[in-house]
Every structure is written in structure tokens, then in C-alpha cells.
Design a protein that fits this description.
This protein has helices spanning 50-71, 89-95, 98-124, 129-159, 167-177, 181-197, 203-212, and strands spanning 6-22, 29-45, 179-180, 216-222, 225-226, 237-243, 246-252. By secondary structure, it is α+β, with helices and mostly antiparallel strands. Strand 4 and strand 5 (225-226) form a beta hairpin. The structure holds zinc ion.
């Protein structure tokens, strides 16, 4: 048994963001809520600075979550014309004919089990020829079938246009997730109220509340010092100014 010499700290954080999209085809504006969970770890070697490692893991997880929420996207079609946007294509293609991938993996698993069965049959049987031939056939068919299914599915997905999918399916996907422009103004109004409610809270409390409601959150100023921040109006982002660690100003944008 080895002597323990380190402790690994794992931090898991989850959050959500309201993603604003302008349709590439019909120019309609819509939003949807995207959720993500990320995990980060830090090691405390020789058990030194365990609290520091825990804090670093949490900070890195929060940073990764923020980047993921900023850059990632879900496949949510436009509620007006039903089109997926180009950045969403990879995610839609990943889900295309997934059954072929799972069936391929199942066949490969069968091909891995077959040699064991083959050895068992050969060892036990007086006349194992037929059983051996049968198992060899199963092994070859499952191996070739598994590889073929996975490869064919990969090639088909790469060349498949997500916007050629059934219009009803896309409309249903849009209805279940997309928030049309008509509702966005109401959301902005609600977001303004939320931003105002953050005033007086600590930075940690305000950040947690903003993320739990699906908003991005960024500190633009602390004790009079400006922080680097993302510019340009976004109705799904709350910007705050801090004084002594508490929110003194909060606004949407
Ligand atoms: Zn559209």
C-alpha cells in the first residue's frame, strides 16, 4: 500500500446563460437558456496549502464555466423560419443518427467477447469445428459491421445539412427552447429589476443570483478601479460596480 503524499481537490460549478441569437437566414432575433456544468481540480502536494488548492480549483471552475457559457451554444432553431445557425451545426450533427454509433459500439463489444467464447468452446468441445466457424463468423461480422456503422455515420453526419431536417421537428425544437423577440423586451424589463435587486449584496451573492437566473455577470469596476470587461450591449448580461466587496451599481448591458 502506497504512502499518501497528495490530496486532490475537485470543484464542480453549474450555471446558465441566456443566449441571444440573430438568425442568419431571416434576421429574426431570439433567445434561449443554456445550462452547463464544469469541473476543475487542483492538487495539494504533501498536503501543503490545501485551502489554497481548493480555492484555486473553485476559481478555475468558475472561469471555465464563464468561458463555456460565453462561447458554447445549444442547437436551437430560429422560431420564425426554423433554421439552425452555423455555429450550432456541429452539435446538431453530433446527434444525427446517433443510433448507428451506439449499434456500432455494441457490435464492437460483441466482437471483443467472441474470442473468449471461441477459446472456451475450443477447450470444452470434442468437435468444435462448427462452433468455432460460427464464432469466427460472428466475430468478423460484428467487427466489420461495428466499424462500418461508426464510419458511415461519421461520414454522413459530416456532409449532412442540419437545415434539411424535417421542418416539424425543427419547429418543435424551436418552440420548446426559443424565446421570440416579442418576449425579449419583457425579459429586459425583468432583468432590470433583477439588476436593481443585487445592489447591496456581496459580489459572491450577486454573481450566484445572476447565474441562477441565466444571466452573464461581470464586474466592471471595483473601488473606483475599472476592470477589463466585454463591451457591447447584451440583454442577458448584468454589469456591476463594487465598493468594499458589495454591489453599488448594477445594470443590464
Ligand atoms: Zn430565421
Amino acid at each position: 500500500m502506497g504512502i499518501p503524499y497528495a490530496m486532490e481537490y475537485i470543484a464542480t460549478v453549474a450555471g446558465a446563460a441566456l443566449k441571444l441569437v440573430q438568425c442568419e437566414k431571416c434576421q429574426a432575433v431570439y433567445m434561449y437558456r443554456m445550462e452547463r456544468q464544469v469541473q476543475s481540480s487542483e492538487t495539494s502536494w504533501l498536503f501543503v496549502d490545501g485551502q489554497g488548492a481548493e480555492n484555486r480549483a473553485a476559481a478555475r471552475a468558475r472561469q471555465q464555466l464563464e468561458q463555456t457559457l460565453e462561447h458554447d451554444c445549444d442547437p436551437v432553431p430560429c422560431p420564425e423560419c426554423g433554421c439552425y445557425q452555423e455555429p450550432m451545426f456541429a452539435a446538431v450533427r453530433q446527434r444525427h443518427r446517433r443510433w448507428m454509433f451506439y449499434l456500432g459500439v455494441l457490435l464492437l463489444a460483441i466482437s471483443c467477447v467472441s474470442p473468449c467464447q471461441l477459446a472456451t468452446v475450443s477447450a470444452k468441445s470434442q468437435d468444435p469445428t462448427v462452433a468455432r466457424q460460427l464464432l469466427i463468423t460472428v466475430l468478423l461480422v460484428s467487427l466489420m459491421g461495428g466499424i462500418s456503422l461508426i464510419m458511415v455515420r461519421k461520414l454522413q453526419s459530416m456532409n449532412w445539412d442540419p437545415n434539411s431536417a424535417d421542418q416539424d421537428l425543427k419547429s418543435r425544437a424551436a418552440k420548446s427552447r426559443a424565446i421570440p423577440k416579442a418576449h425579449i423586451d419583457k425579459l429586459v424589463q425583468a432583468a432590470k429589476s433583477l439588476a436593481e435587486s443585487l445592489i447591496g449584496l456581496t459580489n459572491t451573492e450577486a454573481e450566484a443570483i445572476a447565474y441562477s437566473h441565466g444571466f452573464h455577470y461581470q464586474v466592471v469596476m471595483s473601488d473606483g478601479e475599472c476592470y477589463p470587461s466585454t463591451t457591447g450591449f447584451a440583454p442577458n448580461r448584468i454589469n456591476v460596480a463594487l465598493t468594499d466587496g458589495r454591489v453599488t451599481k448594477a445594470y443590464i448591458g
